[in-house]
Amino acid sequence: MKIVGQTDKGITRRSNQDSFAVLQLATGLDAVVLCDGMGGAQAGNVASDQAVSIISNHISRFARVDMRSQSIKALLESSAMAANAQIYDQSQTHLELSGMGTTVVSAIFLNGVAHIIHAGDSRAYILKNGVLEQITTDHSIVQHLYETGQITKEEALNHPTRNVITRAVGTQDTLKVDYNMVDYADGDMFLICSDGLTNFVSEEQIQEIIQENDFFDAAKKLVDKANENGGGDNITVVLALADSEEDEASL
Question: CA-based angle 51:52:56, to the nearest 5?
């Protein structure tokens, strides 16, 4: 995989509570972890930084190129649970960190399959055959309202509760994550991002920017567009392009 990432605090925020990591562990084995923290400037930073660190270390320690799908799923889930336990414990024992938490999207790419877990409203997409498709489903009040027919997709974009999520790492003593498994081929591209992108750049604009720019420029172009459209939140974008020739070149 070719992987590139970009993060920015946006125009209105004083600090960047997003964190991400790119792990290229072995030929054909790559991973991405992205978190969007919440709970005040210090607490949000602590939650996202620690979650990325714990999950990345867990994946780096245990991921192997010969792992089966069920083992990869278990690895991703256990890494999120480890992060949840530590962050929740700190939020309960340190007053200044009370209420902290973070979204998470973790992905492992291996043998033409993307294994993805998530909690919250950070997202994963795939651009395949010229079509951008959302893989994850937000854990948010707005998503629930949309799924139950109480609001339209257009109304969801500007709904007053659009930033309220229903799942996060570290806010409860237990955590439930969703798991998706997606096949990919050479030329397919994954986008993993925080809501600082998707709340300010439409999916049509995202697809257009990705398709009209060089791969290594597209992430910055997406961040720039989010800032151009208001930049009201931290913005993090990671793009992963399937390229078997790149993997072979690293042998």
Answer: 115
Give the integer Cα–Cα distance in Å for 49 and 185: 32
Say what the pLDDT of residue 39 is.
Answer: 83
Cβ-based burial of 79 (10 A; exposed 0-12, middle 13-18, buried ≥19): buried
Spatial CA neighbour of 244 closest among 81, 46, 150, 110 = 110
* pLDDT tens-place string over residues 42-55: 799 999 999 999 99
Q: Cα–Cα distance between 119 and 112 in angstroms, integer?
A: 24
Domain 2-246: CATH class, spelled out: alpha beta
Distance CA 190, CA 241 (A): 6
Cα–Cα distance, 78 to 126 (Å, whole number): 24
Longest dimension (CA), the chain: 53
Q: Where are the domains of the chain?
A: 2-246
